[in-house]
């Protein structure tokens, strides 16, 4: 038995509206948004008294999804350091293929994003960069050249 697909990546946030706006500026679409609570979710995630708001965003092709969760109770725990570098253990970024990397970076900068390093060319194959958005979220951008 093999997996069918990767369904989504979860990112826990404090300011759901700001992070949704960031991912919409990237080109994602809001699929759903609403409260999630009850004993079933408490059993799934192993935390009691859960009350959260969740938004599901999808890529325009419908294959990739990012789930955003804002916990009302219990409060989310902040990692240290908040803006962890790329060599920190754990998930560091989510990578997106884009058509025009400079246009995407400009749109994300309007939402407070900054380049982590530099926009670079990898041979004649890709232009790549990491962008840090709201709440320290890092997205990688890759524009295929051929």
Description:
This protein starts with 8 loop residues before the first strand and ends with a strand. The protein is an alpha+beta fold and 146 residues long. Helix 1 (16-26) runs antiparallel to helix 3. A hairpin with a 3-residue loop joins strand 7 and strand 8. It is 18% helix and 37% strand.
Question: Into which percent range does the helicity of residues fall?
Answer: 10-25%
Estimate the global geometry from the Cα principal axes: globular
Radius of gyration: 16 Å
Strand fraction band?
35-45%
Low-confidence stretches: none
Helix count from the secondary structure assignment: 3
Give the N-to-C terminal Cα separation: 35 Å
Summary, kept brief:
The protein has 146 residues and is α+β, with helices and mostly antiparallel strands.
Q: Secondary structure elements and their pairing?
A:
Layout: E1 9-12, H1 16-26, E2 29-37, H2 39-45, E3 51-58, E4 65-73, E5 94-98, H3 101-109, E6 114-115, E7 120-122, E8 126-132, E9 138-144
Parallel strand pairs: 1-4, 5-9
Antiparallel strand pairs: 2-3, 3-4, 6-8, 7-8, 8-9
Helix pairs in contact: 1-3
List keywords for this structure.
146 residues; alpha+beta; 5-stranded mixed beta sheet; 4-stranded mixed beta sheet; 37% strand; globular
């Amino acid at each position: 038995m093999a997996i069918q697909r990767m369904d989504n990546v979860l990112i826990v946030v404090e300011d759901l509206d700001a992070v949704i706006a960031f991912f919409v500026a990237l080109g994602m679409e809001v699929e759903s948004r609403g409260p999630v609570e009850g004993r079933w979710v408490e059993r799934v995630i192993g935390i009691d008294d859960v009350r959260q708001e969740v938004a599901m965003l999808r890529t325009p092709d419908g294959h990739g999804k990012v789930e955003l969760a804002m916990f009302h109770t219990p409060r989310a725990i902040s990692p240290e350091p908040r803006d962890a570098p790329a060599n920190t253990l754990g998930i560091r970024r989510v990578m997106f293929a884009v058509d025009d990397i400079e246009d995407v970076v400009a749109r994300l900068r309007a939402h407070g994003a900054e380049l982590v390093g530099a926009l670079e060319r990898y041979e004649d194959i890709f232009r790549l960069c990491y962008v840090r958005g709201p709440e320290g979220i890092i997205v990688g951008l890759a524009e295929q050249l051929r």
